[in-house]
């Protein structure tokens, strides 16, 4: 006699509260493209606000380290005496700031490894909101040090550590949500455009922090801190983590593209009949997240992870030290003001926007992520040398070379953290574990973040020996990053030649 096993159905996924409060947003006539655009917009704003809140430390560096009685010629020809802010003033000020950057970025890197795996088990909308609110709170706390006349180095370090932990939540969450809504087609271009949130956030943070710097450096932290908390409200109210949350079925969709993994689909119990006609309860194999060590063993994960280590080392050295470098380096014989230097540094991020889009488009066109990354890395070496040697000749030369540097440095960084991570986390060899991408993304960006932590720290120490030494460090790092992808490039080229494509590369391959 056939027996039925009782299966308790899981409660249906609920839409976010904003869609329940404003049902017109989730109305049936709203198309899939509308909701995809809304997800892109919200995740773009979320991570742009993360980066905007990271920018103030680089903007205020020159103010905090101003040596006592040092007189510099400003852009208007007047003289200015710097006083600095203990414990960051004096000859060891850059060292302390480098250590402060290390505290933040190391906490960020370590937190990234846990955040990616933790993101597979919780509601990503809630987790992302918590990360944004927590980041805003500690950014504001850092700025309050100005108003409270705080001079404890340990207190500043502790604030940055907690800020780094909350910031590490952002990236695995936004990548996972976007992956739930988009298939593999044109992934490089879509993610290249979407990943410009990094540079856009840097630009917004630089402009906001620089514009209020004259009121006191604390204001440069308060406004970005409140900004990310404001954006967090919209994330909590309107972000739809998965199409099924609002009753959209992604029929015909490439099953590879489940990132968070398909958290709602992959974790569901599947009912089937056994040989006696009984209902049995089985666990979809995709619901088991891939192990951390197993993810490291996936093809090319280690290569791209360590490549990003050195690429992000370079990118974050610019992120945290470029305004300071511009302030200390005379352009056409004139030292720029703190505000002007901060705003001018956004040119590097403008170049980064075009770099991410260009790298994504080229990699889609030639279908080779490794070749694209190495091409950008190789071209960035002479560009950085030129920026160091000729960037001080005139403002036009400085802007042009800074833009080119941002384009070439951020291109591979953007490509690896988005499209490459998505490709590696959804490759056919792990199709039985559809929840791999959050873990793979965390491994790649977490490893890169360790490099991001070391870069600003090393720059803080090396800068005292001269900026030529800093640029030498950057060039060596880029060279190592390119070398780490040599075998990936060889395999890509051989694969294209075997397919009868890229015939123009046959001589090089031979």
Automatic annotation (TrEMBL):
Predominant subcellular localization, coarse grouping: membrane
Keywords: Membrane, Sugar transport, Transmembrane, Transmembrane helix, Transport
Transmembrane stretches, start-end: 37-53, 102-119, 126-147, 153-182, 194-215, 221-241, 301-322, 342-362, 374-393, 399-424, 436-458, 470-489
Gene Ontology cellular component annotations, sorted alphabetically: endoplasmic reticulum membrane
UniProt topology in membrane: Multi-pass membrane protein
Keyword Transport: yes
Boundaries of every Major facilitator superfamily (MFS) profile domain copy: 41-494
SUPFAM superfamilies with a match to the protein in the record: MFS general substrate transporter
Keyword Transport (UniProt): yes
Protein name as annotated: Major facilitator superfamily protein
Organism in which the protein naturally occurs: Perilla frutescens var. hirtella
């Amino acid at each position: 006699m056939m027996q039925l096993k009782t299966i308790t159905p899981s409660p249906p996924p609920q839409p976010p509260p904003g869609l329940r409060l404003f049902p017109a947003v989730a109305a049936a006539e709203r198309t899939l493209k509308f909701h995809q655009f809304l997800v892109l917009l919200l995740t773009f704003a979320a991570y742009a606000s993360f980066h905007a809140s990271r920018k103030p430390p680089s903007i205020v560096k020159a103010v905090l380290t101003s040596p006592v009685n040092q007189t510099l010629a400003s852009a208007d020809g007047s003289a200015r005496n710097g006083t600095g802010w203990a414990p960051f003033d004096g000859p060891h000020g850059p060292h302390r700031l480098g250590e402060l950057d290390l505290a933040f970025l190391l906490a960020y890197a370590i937190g990234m490894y846990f955040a990616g795996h933790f993101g597979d088990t919780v509601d990503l909308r809630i987790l992302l909101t918590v990360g944004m609110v927590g980041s805003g709170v500690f950014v504001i706390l850092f700025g309050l040090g100005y108003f409270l006349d705080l001079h404890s180095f340990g207190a500043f370090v502790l604030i940055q550590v907690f800020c780094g932990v909350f910031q590490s939540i952002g990236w695995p969450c936004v990548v996972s949500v976007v992956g739930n809504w988009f298939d593999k087609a044109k992934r490089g271009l879509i993610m290249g455009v979407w990943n410009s949130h990094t540079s856009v956030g840097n630009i917004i943070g630089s402009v906001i922090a620089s514009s209020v710097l004259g009121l006191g450096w604390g204001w440069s932290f308060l406004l970005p801190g409140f900004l990310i908390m404001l954006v967090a409200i919209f994330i909590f109210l309107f972000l739809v983590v998965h199409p099924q949350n609002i009753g959209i079925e992604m029929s015909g969709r490439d099953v590879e593209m489940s990132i968070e993994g398909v958290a709602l689909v992959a974790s569901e119990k599947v009912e089937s009949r056994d040989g006696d006609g009984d209902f049995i309860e089985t666990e979809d194999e995709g619901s088991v997240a891939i192990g951390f060590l197993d993810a490291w063993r996936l093809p090319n994960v280690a290569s791209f992870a360590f490549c990003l280590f050195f690429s992000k080392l370079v990118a974050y050295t610019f992120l945290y030290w470029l305004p300071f470098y511009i302030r200390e380096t005379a352009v056409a014989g004139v030292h720029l003001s703190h505000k002007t230097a901060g705003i001018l540094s956004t040119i590097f991020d403008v170049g980064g926007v075009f770099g991410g889009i260009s790298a994504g488009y080229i990699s889609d066109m030639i279908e080779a992520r490794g070749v694209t990354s190495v091409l950008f890395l190789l071209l960035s070496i002479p560009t950085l040398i030129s920026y160091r040697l000729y960037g001080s000749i005139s403002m036009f030369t400085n802007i042009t070379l800074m833009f080119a540097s941002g384009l070439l440095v951020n291109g591979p960084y953007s490509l690896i953290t988005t499209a490459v991570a998505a490709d590696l986390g959804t490759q056919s060899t792990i199709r039985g574990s559809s929840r791999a991408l959050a873990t793979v993304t965390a491994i790649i960006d977490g490893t890169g973040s360790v490099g991001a932590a070391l870069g600003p720290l090393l720059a803080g120490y090396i800068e005292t020996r001269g900026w030529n030494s800093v640029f030498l460090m950057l060039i060596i790092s880029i060279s190592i990053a390119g070398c780490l992808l040599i075998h990936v490039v060889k395999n890509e080229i051989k694969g294209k030649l075997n397919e009868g494509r890229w015939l123009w590369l046959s001589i090089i391959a031979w």
